[in-house]
Amino acid sequence: MAQVRIPTPLRRLTKGEAEVSVDGDTVAAIIDGLEADYPGLKERICDDQGEVRRFVNIYVNDEDVRFLDGTETKTGPDDIMSIIPAIAGG
Amino acid sequence: MFDFSDEQIKRYSRHIILSEVGGTGQTKLLQSKVLLLGAGGLGSPAAFYLAAAGVGTIGLIDDDEVDLSNLQRQILHSTADVGRPKVDSATETLKGVNPDIDVVTYQTRLTSENAMEIIDGYDVIVDGCDNLPTRYLLNDASVFAGKPVVHGSIFQFEGQVTVFDPRHGPCYRCLYPEPPPPDMVPSCQEAGVIGVLPGIIGSLQAVEAIKVVLGIGEPLVGKLLLYNALNQDFRKLTLHKDATCPVCSENPSVTELIDYEAFCAVQW
Questions:
Q1: Pick from B155, B180, B230: which is nearest to A55 by CB?
Q2: Could you say which of 3.40.50.720, 3.30.420.310, 3.40.50.300, 3.40.930.10 is the CATH number of the domain covering B7-238?
Q3: Each residue of B189-238: pLDDT tens digit?
Q4: Which end of chain B has fewer CB atoms < 10 Å from its terminal CB, N or C?
Q5: How far is B208 from B164, CA to CA, in rounded Å?
Q6: CB of B127 closer than 8 Å to CB of B149
Q7: Domain A2-85 is found in CATH 3.10.20.30
Q8: Which residues of B touch A8 (CB under 8 A)?
Q9: What per-residue confidence (pLDDT) applies to B266?
């Protein structure tokens, strides 16, 4: 299990939930777990090749997974995964 | 020792008694030049506090006019200003707060043609613009010019703040290498924003700009501050300089400024 923080624009896919628990012990598995529980989330996060979209970053705790092991980054039960999209409003 | 008028000593007394600022710091502020990109939600509080703080030259770039729907959050402007250029009403407000400062205005959009020239004279740039193409353009120009950018962005109830200092840390493209396709980004005001949010995020940007000018504390270089108004949560994430960054790495693929197509999509 892992805790995942859902950014505001995607909460319509999680019935408004800001934080959800899903199965998975790597970032990739958690993304699949999200898709299983909340269909439509994966395509927002990943492109057709399954790569994380370039305007979205995934953090485990406070570290960007691109600077860890990417989507193979391992997560434990106490870790929090955050999905952080670029936002532009001013 | 310091070249302050009696009025300046009184006006800035609460700064001058701070050991972190003092007469030396206040002199630095009075000699500093800060450019605000956008005189809207974020630019309003940021410019207000920077003017009050005695930042000697404030540049304002905004091509827009005041709209009634702006007044829910853009506190530089008032009801009587509806229809006026934002840079004009902003100048009036800022000079009213502090006639001691110069306000330089640019009623235009930042483009690949004018960006380098406009940012050239400034020490720090506060990015409070409302669209991604301008954010990428400013990032690339500031990397080329080696100037720090205090970045703020807002969406509904959430905000992000960081300092991109190409001399010491990551840039915007280290975070997000390329803009998303036009239909894929959660960006603009049409998605709604709680009016106080830019007040908080823009004020945080003003603090960061002052810290960068004074060289005090730990500016948010390599840190992304996330704020959520609904649960009053502040979190800091770590940002890294990307060795493969398209613009600030050793072998950049972006070597000139790009005008990306303007877009504003609510759905993602």
A1: B180
A2: 3.40.50.720
A3: 567 899 999 999 999 999 999 999 999 999 999 999 999 999 999 999 99
A4: N
A5: 11
A6: yes
A7: yes
A8: 155-158, 186
A9: 46
